[in-house]
Amino acid sequence: MRPSTLRALNRAAELTRQNRLTEAMLIAEPVILTADSVEGREIRRWLLDHVADFTGENHPDSKELP
User: Is residue 48 part of a domain?
Assistant: First the structure.
């Protein structure tokens, strides 16, 4: 995953925890939509592995989400 993509996802997670979902989507959506198939899989894996980064909660089953 490109460093700029990872920075955008981390920033979106931070904004989501601050209840600033609209801003988070404005940052994350463009990088998700422009990702190629390889990076798209990496983004999906990162999102599944980092659910708690967005919710602030622990989700033990997050790695098994489709």
Answer: yes
